[in-house]
């Protein structure tokens, strides 16, 4: 019998804390980091925002969260109390996330954020040249 007991139809369902599963599935390096991220309220279980790290998840739940400028959508396939190797951790979930952008597309997006060389703050020599120019006008 599981911690939560039988369901209405008599079958038992295994449940697990959300923060513990995120840690075991290697999405976060420490359990406290997983807890902090859940408390922000930006994580969803089956489309519902969750703010409590103790929220229970079951096999089949779909988790949606953002991490490192990427949106993860994962379906829980198995529960594990222990953090194992990466290969074992990848077996705990199915990745339903949209394909990440290619590096070329990301560079094109950031192209507009770049500045021309020398277009930033003037150097000391540039400031002196500007002072000379402005003092000639007077």
Automatic annotation (TrEMBL):
<feature type="region of interest" description="Disordered">
    <location>
        <begin position="98"/>
        <end position="138"/>
    </location>
</feature>
<feature type="compositionally biased region" description="Basic and acidic residues">
    <location>
        <begin position="106"/>
        <end position="138"/>
    </location>
</feature>
<dbReference type="GO" id="GO:0043023">
    <property type="term" value="F:ribosomal large subunit binding"/>
</dbReference>
<comment type="similarity">
    <text>Belongs to the HSP15 family.</text>
</comment>
<dbReference type="Pfam" id="PF01479">
    <property type="entry name" value="S4"/>
</dbReference>
<dbReference type="InterPro" id="IPR036986">
    <property type="entry name" value="S4_RNA-bd_sf"/>
</dbReference>
<dbReference type="GO" id="GO:0003727">
    <property type="term" value="F:single-stranded RNA binding"/>
</dbReference>
<dbReference type="InterPro" id="IPR002942">
    <property type="entry name" value="S4_RNA-bd"/>
</dbReference>
<dbReference type="InterPro" id="IPR025708">
    <property type="entry name" value="HSP15"/>
</dbReference>
<dbReference type="GO" id="GO:0003677">
    <property type="term" value="F:DNA binding"/>
</dbReference>
<dbReference type="GO" id="GO:0034605">
    <property type="term" value="P:cellular response to heat"/>
</dbReference>
<feature type="domain" description="RNA-binding S4">
    <location>
        <begin position="16"/>
        <end position="78"/>
    </location>
</feature>
<keyword id="KW-0694">RNA-binding</keyword>
<protein>
    <submittedName>
        <fullName>Heat-shock protein 15</fullName>
    </submittedName>
</protein>
<keyword id="KW-0238">DNA-binding</keyword>
């Amino acid at each position: 019998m599981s911690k939560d007991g039988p369901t209405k139809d008599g079958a038992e369902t295994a449940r697990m804390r959300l923060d513990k599963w995120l840690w075991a599935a290697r999405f976060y390096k420490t359990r406290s980091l997983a807890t902090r991220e859940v408390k922000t309220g930006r994580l969803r279980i089956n489309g519902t925002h969750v703010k409590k790290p103790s929220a229970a998840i079951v096999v089949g739940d779909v988790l949606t969260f953002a991490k490192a400028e990427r949106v993860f959508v994962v379906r829980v396939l198995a529960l594990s109390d222990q953090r194992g190797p990466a290969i074992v951790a990848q077996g705990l979930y199915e990745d339903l996330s949209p394909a990440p952008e290619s590096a070329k597309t990301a560079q094109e997006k950031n192209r507009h954020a770049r500045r021309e060389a020398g277009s930033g703050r003037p150097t000391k020599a540039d400031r002196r040249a500007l002072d000379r120019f402005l003092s000639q006008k007077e």
